[in-house]
Hints:
The protein is of the alpha/beta class. The protein has helices at 50-58, 84-94, 97-131, 143-159, 166-185, 205-228, 246-252, 255-269, 292-306, 323-338, and strands at 2-6, 12-16, 19-24, 27-33, 37-43, 47-48, 62-66, 72-76, 278-280, 288-290, 309-311, 320-322.
Amino acid sequence: MTSIYVKEQGAMVRRDGDRLVISKDGEVLDEFPLVNVEQVTLMGNVQLTTQAAATLLARDIDVVYLSSYGKFRGRLVGSGSKQVRLRQRQMQLLSREAYALPLAKAVVDGKIHNQRALLQRQTRRVRSLAERGRGLAAVPADPRLFNRALAGMMKMKQAAPAAVRLDSLRGFEGKAAAYYFAAVRTLLEPGWGFQRRQYYPPPDPFNALLSFSYTLLLKDMTTAVQQVGLDPYLGFFHEVVYGRPSLVLDLMEEWRPLLADAMALELVNRGALRPGDFHKTGNPNRPVELGEQGVSLVLKAYGSRLETRLYHAMAGPGGETSLLQAMRLQVRQLAQVLQGKRAAYEPLKAR
Length: 351
């Protein structure tokens, strides 16, 4: 199945028979058989005709809207989920901290495990490439800081199960994240300007790369949550506040290192992306942006990453499935926990 990203400003997406056609100023840029299309992402000033929208809705093909610089705007949704009983259970159970806390502990445990696994894999891989004469600098640049960060993360991982309140658990997760990004900094060349994780707005190229990568993950997790029938705004770890898709953010946690961070570090360490591929905008709301070629590169890398094969216990005979399908299976697992069909939520952990 094909995921289509349309980022040519001023382009139009229309239906022509059994094909989806992308054109601009009367010139066809690309076309795809509808039977092969799974998702259409429209970035910025891209038009979708009424006929095409109706067809995509009728075929349950996901349509996602992003800004031209990668901010998630929303999805095209038809009549919505009919899983009223499931959302009712979600409201009843996740509103109770005593019920939400074990779920949140599982997610935090999975996230920290995957962060540590990613750090250790990255150092092994880059050292191996350096030894083979690929011209890469030895990493981590500060081994003592790196090892201290790994140890600190393990302490937070071991302390988190004893948390008796969600606020305490968030504290352990926050400290683990601070250690993690301190270790990530030792894997990057100084030209990336990365000191720590900063969200709004990202002040340097690597933070901008992470934010764009997380937006791509956000769109796919939002789709998975809504397709299963859960409410994306009612979560169990992130606080429930106006406009925040707390459940989506909760379920993203174990996937940030597995998908977004791993992809970002891979692009950087291979030299596929360099700080010069980003440009300063002069806009304080988004001071650093990835250029057009860089956006195309990240989208391609993200699509390839989603196709990565891995084991998942719910994947049927053999247990092998794609990373994208594994994300959807994790959402289904949570739904089964809420319905009483499973005893506990188990995060997907890197092996």
